[in-house]
Design goal:
The protein is mainly beta and 132 residues long. The protein has 2 helices and 10 strands; from the N terminus they run E-H-H-E-E-E-E-E-E-E-E-E. Strands 4-3-2-1-10-9-8-7-6-5 form a 10-stranded antiparallel beta sheet. The longest helix is centred in the N-terminal third of the chain and has 7 residues, at 15-21.
């Protein structure tokens, strides 16, 4: 699968506004802007193993396409949802456990870069990763 590999955050668009809408405090938002996030993706069939490592934490996530799972975001917000593959795009929909609002996200390859989009409560953001 083309998502396989190690990806390093290169740039973001509207990420601070997105995090603010998510209710993340000012200090955590500023730290997140400089988190040096690296995502390592390994796909075997419908199974994914993802390692998210940053300056502040390392987290491993295992999921199967189409199967709901629980996950805690970097700020501790707990969500439940699924990832699905739609053509060449990974699409995720996650419901926050604290307020039942939905966070949607996608991952797709554009010109050799991994582009992750986010939408929460009407605010869109994007993070772009380069393959290492």
């Amino acid at each position: 699968m083309t998502f396989n590999g190690a990806w390093k955050a290169e740039r973001s668009e509207n990420y601070d506004k997105f995090m603010e809408q998510m209710g993340i405090n000012f200090m955590k938002r500023k730290l997140a802007e400089h988190d040096n996030l690296k995502i390592t993706i390994t796909q075997t069939g419908n199974q994914f193993h993802i390692v998210e490592s940053s300056t502040f934490r390392t987290k491993e996530i295992d999921f199967t396409l189409g199967v709901p799972f629980d996950y805690a975001l970097a700020d501790g917000t707990e969500v439940s949802g699924t990832w699905n593959l739609d053509g060449e795009m990974l699409k995720g929909a996650f419901t926050r456990k604290d307020n039942n609002k939905v966070l949607t996200t996608t991952r797709t390859l554009v010109n050799g870069e991994l582009v992750q989009t986010f939408n929460y409560d009407g605010v869109d953001a994007k993070r772009v990763f380069k393959k290492e």
